[in-house]
Design a protein that fits this description.
single chain, 263 residues
């Protein structure tokens, strides 16, 4: 078993694909507003080292299947078939459960006309963005970042506040390629997750421990070594369009800006 819990286990895992649970997926310019479902010191925050297997869709887009290295995760207590086969293209990932309220996009719903409605327009500063309502428990699952810069923001939140609970957060992504992608974690305001929402989550079986979620990648992993992928920090297909030009701000609701960035 992996040692420690929460932020500490995730940090230790880095030093030393396929996923059934839904994940937060952000494109360049997107911002997700959420409450953490982890204190940062429990089993709902964790990390691991993963074998990376490049894949390609029928449309020609590339993505990377991530398979947990159980040998690294258990400090050598369990055997890893990929390590035994000599596969050494690996990367670190950490994950945490959140309740995602909505995502702010630079452009409107691309699936209009396919049974979906336009997204609500909101104003962020001088810019109009498009609000996609989510209202679901999801996992933030991402690389630690070069020099642990992305993971470090989550760690700073735990250190500064003592818990990740009790605040509305925002995670923003900029960039769409291997070299220009960056993430910024920020506190919007101090406010608890609604008790009704928390009770519904507690009654469901959606939120598993991070260990369970990460181990689920093992059953679907590639059985043979694969060539090196493009970058340790690259996620699934990054064939994305550049940031869209937002419409001019008109008579639309104004959205509260984050109060504090954790960088």
């Amino acid at each position: 078993m992996a040692k420690g819990k929460g932020i500490h286990q995730a940090e230790d895992a880095a030093s030393a694909g396929f996923l059934r649970q839904p994940k937060v997926r952000l494109k360049s310019g997107d911002r997700v507003r959420f409450h953490f479902l982890s204190t940062g010191e429990d089993d709902f925050f964790g990390g691991g080292r993963f074998h990376m297997f490049p894949q390609k869709t029928q449309a020609g887009k590339t993505w990377t299947k991530e398979v947990l290295c159980v040998r690294a995760f258990t400090d050598g207590e369990e055997e890893c078939s990929h390590c035994d086969e000599g596969h050494d293209d690996m990367g670190n990932r950490f994950a945490v459960w959140v309740y995602a309220h909505f995502v702010l996009h630079l452009g409107d719903n691309p699936n209009q006309g396919e049974g979906e409605e336009p997204w609500e327009q909101v104003k962020m500063g001088k810019r109009v963005m498009f609000k996609e309502t989510i209202d679901l428990p999801l996992m933030i699952w991402m690389p630690y970042g070069r020099g642990f810069i992305w993971f470090g923001q989550f760690r700073e939140a735990v250190v500064k506040y003592g818990t990740l609970l009790g605040r509305l957060f925002e995670l923003k992504r900029v960039g769409s390629g291997m070299q220009d992608t960056d993430y910024t974690l920020a506190v919007v305001k101090e406010v608890d997750l609604e008790k009704k929402i928390q009770k519904e989550i507690d009654k469901s079986d959606v939120v598993t421990t991070i260990e369970v979620a990460m181990r689920e990648t093992v059953s679907s992993g590639s059985a043979s070594p694969a060539p090196a992928r493009l970058s340790e920090e690259e996620e699934a297909s990054e064939d994305e369009a550049s940031e869209e030009e937002a419409p001019a701000a008109g008579d639309v609701p104004e959205m509260e800006e984050p109060a504090e960035e954790l960088v």
